[in-house]
What does this fold into?
Amino acid sequence: MNTRVTYRVRLTPECLEMDGKRVAEAVAGESFLTQLYRMNKMDYPKFFKMDVLCKVGFLASEILLQAEGAERFVPRSDRAVILFNRNSSLHADRTFQQTIANPEDFYPSPSVFVYTLPNIVTGEIAIRNKYHGESSFILLPEKSQEAMNRAIARAFLDPETKSVLTGWVEAVSETEFEATMELVVSS
Amino acid sequence: MELIEELKTKMIEALNLEEMTPADIDENAPLFGDEGLGLDSIDVLELIVLLERNYGIKIADPKQGKEIFASVRTMADYVAANRTK
It folds into this structure.
């Protein structure tokens, strides 16, 4: 099947790029992720409850999907969400571990625990955009475009899938993250 | 009244209600549903942890939760009557 990339976004701690053009840069003060949330006037308070991996993936998808305009938020089953990274939800895992490390202060945090799975990111994106197609978060030993392309190609084997929101979403700390996300459509 | 304000501050921190200040929270409004704060099931688990950690309160009977977490005021009343620290 022939496919093409319609939109592409790249998010790092330093800047945001849309289709290869730098559209926003981090400034001193709040975290860049919060700055982007406010700049894009998102009315989605749940954002603040997310762990950093989820924030990175969610923001990248929000900014990328704005380009779809009026088509957004129409329930659909023909779009898959397939994301990749190497470190899974390691940052949330470590944060949760801190809540149970001290026997004298043993209070496991439910709200941290829910983010100790990377596929929460794909779930949040699917819920937000009313997607009912496939969603997967695949862990790779290293960033490999070839491996990602194979997974995307497999998704298109489902005759119902007409587009795939996909990319590399990695966050190992509040200041070390990267999302490279694109919308691939069948043509 | 002091306990109500204290609870509001702790809730904002525990539930990551970053867009809110204590003044934004009506202590009589429902915590769940569209009319009030709109908290979800994970938030109530976090509130249970908050009560245990800060006030030494263990909620043994889940059925009590609906009454205790009806509003900030009902939470404060329960804390005042049952706190061990």
